[in-house]
């Protein structure tokens, strides 16, 4: 028996910083970048005396990092004890395993299913974790080989390529923080996607959920309840692993896909935070019985719009540090910060409304919509009004321009907030790049995702304009990534993705 589950990375295109506080919303897109967790038994059959065992074995492998860790799992408390590891163990994986097993025990009450769960645990667990190349930066390797910073070069890399560790490990402060993260990433929420994939795979493998049919949690169906359980456990494990209760939009996107998100009340995880994840059976019983009050309303980009991400290569950014600086500014200047947040909230809502209007127009007036998008993709925004020849096309162009104006308003207030808080939310180098991008043919939006900084830039283009933007970014020293929007959330896969990639490669060889 083998279960493979995947969960996507994310891009927060609106709602940076505001999404930290209820009832502010964020617009988050799930992506084609996915983490995979492969769960199978360690042994094929049970030893004769296994029912008397108090512990079972767990092995976790991360081939891309050349890492492997083995554990003893307490069958009573669902807690792990590390027995060996090639490198430091991953707290996100550990918490995902512990919380998932405790949740399965807490939610499975039927005797037959409980016996099946016990048997699966006694056979041990083998967990393999794989992340798409898109989560990691290969920029240094590309530059070292003298290759162009192009999507074609990224595409030539083998799937699930080995990951290079940063050599700069000097301590940057009295607290012992590293100047750079251990692994260079692209800011797609790798820890949330990884945690969610492990939780989903384990809960399905152990029989606590059935992820074989896609669904939405808002439907009230059994599938929706299953996704809600995955969400609750993934959020809990992720928060305990990172040592704080964040907004959770990255985990929510990994579970439910693209959405309009309003965070859950932090008090929901008060018991887990108070115990630091210990006393797992009690903590998980509390978590699964609480009413989670997050909001995840279905949202995705309208048709014929393409999300494009770029890696500027100007140094990484510490999101927690930036968030801390913004919070200190809020306390020191509550009047100014409240005014800025209010303006940001209005601009975020305006952008969301226009994108929803455009989606409705694409459904009601498909031919006019497609015609406008094709025409505008070849023109700079100043000439978009010239393509409208009837009232429906005029309405489409008006919404496109209004969405563009809203995004510029968001950027303005994010820059103001960064200056006031003393952090580079939209650094000058990014501003120049984004302004140039916004003036290109067929570009609707451009900005810094999430908390901003130097990690990445994004644009949303019309029609097939993304190729020209990617080319311009490459010329400007920005590496265009292969990531696109994929509104799917957590998914059950039919096979280990490495097997699929090998099959595809063999087929390609045979065809050629």
UniProtKB/TrEMBL annotation:
Residues 330-339 have a biased composition (Basic and acidic residues). Pathway: Isoprenoid biosynthesis; isopentenyl diphosphate biosynthesis via mevalonate pathway; isopentenyl diphosphate from (R)-mevalonate: step 2/3. Its EC number is 2.7.4.2. Gene3D superfamilies: 3.30.230.10, GHMP kinase, C-terminal domain (3.30.70.890). Keywords: ATP-binding, Kinase, Lipid biosynthesis, Lipid metabolism, Nucleotide-binding, Steroid biosynthesis, Steroid metabolism, Transferase. Residues 315-339 are annotated as: Disordered. It comes from the Eukaryota. GO terms for molecular function: ATP binding; phosphomevalonate kinase activity. GO terms for biological process: steroid biosynthetic process. Belongs to the GHMP kinase family. Mevalonate kinase subfamily. This is phosphomevalonate kinase. It comes from Urochloa decumbens.
């Amino acid at each position: 028996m083998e279960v493979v589950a995947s969960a996507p990375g994310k891009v927060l295109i609106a709602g940076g910083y505001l999404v930290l506080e209820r009832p502010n919303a964020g617009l988050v897109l799930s992506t084609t970048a996915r983490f995979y967790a492969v769960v199978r038994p360690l042994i094929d059959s049970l030893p004769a005396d296994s029912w008397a065992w108090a512990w079972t074995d767990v092995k976790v492998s991360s081939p891309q990092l050349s890492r492997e860790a083995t554990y003893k799992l307490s069958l009573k408390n669902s807690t792990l004890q590390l027995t060996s590891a090639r490198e430091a163990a991953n707290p996100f994986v550990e918490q995902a395993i512990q919380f998932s097993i405790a949740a399965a025990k807490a939610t499975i009450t039927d005797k037959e299913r409980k016996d099946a769960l016990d048997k699966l645990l006694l056979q041990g667990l083998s967990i393999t974790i794989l992340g798409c190349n898109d989560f990691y930066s290969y920029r240094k390797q590309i530059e070292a080989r003298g290759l162009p910073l192009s999507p074609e070069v990224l595409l030539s890399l083998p799937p699930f390529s080995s990951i290079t560790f940063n050599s700069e490990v000097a301590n940057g402060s009295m607290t012992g923080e590293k100047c750079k993260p251990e692994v260079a990433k692209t800011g797609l929420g790798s820890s949330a996607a990884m945690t969610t994939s492990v939780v989903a795979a384990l809960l399905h493998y152990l029989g606590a959920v059935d992820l074989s049919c896609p669904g939405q949690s808002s439907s009230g169906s059994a599938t929706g309840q299953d996704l809600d359980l995955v969400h609750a456990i993934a959020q809990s494990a992720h928060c305990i692993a990172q040592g704080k209760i964040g907004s959770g939009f990255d985990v929510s996107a990994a579970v439910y896909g693209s959405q309009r998100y309003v965070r859950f009340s932090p008090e929901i995880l008060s018991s887990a935070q108070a115990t630091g994840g210990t006393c797992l059976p009690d903590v998980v019983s509390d978590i699964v019985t609480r009413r989670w009050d997050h909001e995840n309303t279905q949202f995705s980009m309208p048709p014929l719009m393409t999300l494009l991400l770029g890696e500027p290569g100007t140094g990484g950014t510490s999101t927690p540090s930036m968030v801390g600086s913004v919070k200190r500014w809020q306390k020191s200047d509550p009047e100014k910060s409240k005014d800025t947040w209010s303006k940001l909230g209005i601009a975020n809502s305006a952008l969301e409304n226009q994108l929803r209007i455009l989606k409705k127009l694409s459904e009601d007036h498909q031919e006019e919509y497609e015609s406008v998008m094709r025409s505008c993709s070849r023109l700079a925004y100043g000439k978009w009004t010239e393509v409208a020849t009837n009232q429906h096309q005029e309405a489409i162009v008006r919404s496109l321009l209004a969405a563009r104006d809203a995004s510029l308003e968001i950027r303005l207030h994010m820059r103001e907030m960064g200056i006031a808080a003393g952090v580079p939310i939209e650094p000058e180098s990014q501003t120049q790049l984004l302004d140039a991008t916004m003036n290109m043919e067929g570009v609707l939006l451009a900005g810094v995702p999430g908390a901003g900084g130097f990690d990445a830039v994004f644009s949303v283009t019309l029609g097939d304009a993304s190729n020209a933007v990617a080319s311009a970014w490459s010329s400007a020293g920005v590496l265009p990534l292969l990531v696109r929007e994929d509104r799917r959330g957590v998914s059950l896969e039919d096979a280990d993705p490495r097997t699929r990639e090998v099959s595809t490669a063999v087929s390609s060889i045979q065809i050629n």
